[in-house]
Amino acid sequence: MTANRPVADTTPPAGYMLRQGTGLDRALLVKFMQRTYQEIAPGHAFAHLAQTVEQYFSADTPVWWVDRPPLCASAVIPVTDAAIAQPIGCLWLGSAIDQVEGDRHSHIFLLYVAPACRRQGIGAALVRQAEAWAVQRGDRQIGLHVFQSNQPAINLYAKLGYSPQSLWMVKPLS
């Protein structure tokens, strides 16, 4: 942990559990990536995202899950086993190189929360987890990519202190 850099509380809202994933989570990570992109571009096939996960998912690019335990028939016995919990959120992290300074920094590859669970503080908790991971590594900044059309995500990131640094432009070639 780097001195003089406090780590924010990464606890998700009540009723949700945060857990670090394992190398066995490849298929689930692909599924969450596909959900993300299907919201942005409905009707497209995103089978190619499996190649992205295959190429970049490793011990150096950790994933965290937010689980909501399934409803239990008996309120006396709490459900705490993450293996039977239902993942509703995902955070996938990695590294990037600042192209101006040349420094390594943390990068949020994926942040996803199921639509029914949004606006409850889960996304903010995942961003705080990303920041805590970056601070622990000694990184001085963290970056992410957000689609310009994703105004709710832009609002969340701005509320948490993120600001635009560059503009990615594309031109279709036909």
Spell out the key features of this protein:
single chain; 174 residues; alpha+beta; Aminopeptidase; five-stranded mixed sheet; 5 strands; 20% strand; globular; disordered N terminus
Helix content: 25-40%
Query: What is the total tally of β strands?
Result: 5
Task: State the shape.
Answer: globular
Strand content: 15-25%
Name of the CATH first level: Alpha Beta
Count, helices: 4
Oligomeric state of the chains in view = single chain
**Main sheet?**
5 strands, mixed
Radius of gyration: 17 Å
Distance between the termini: 50 Å
Order of helices and strands: EHHEEEHEH
CATH architectural grouping: 3-Layer(aba) Sandwich
Largest sheet: spatial strand order: 1-2-3-4-5
Count of distinct structural domains: 1
The CATH superfamily turns out to be: Gcn5-related N-acetyltransferase (GNAT)
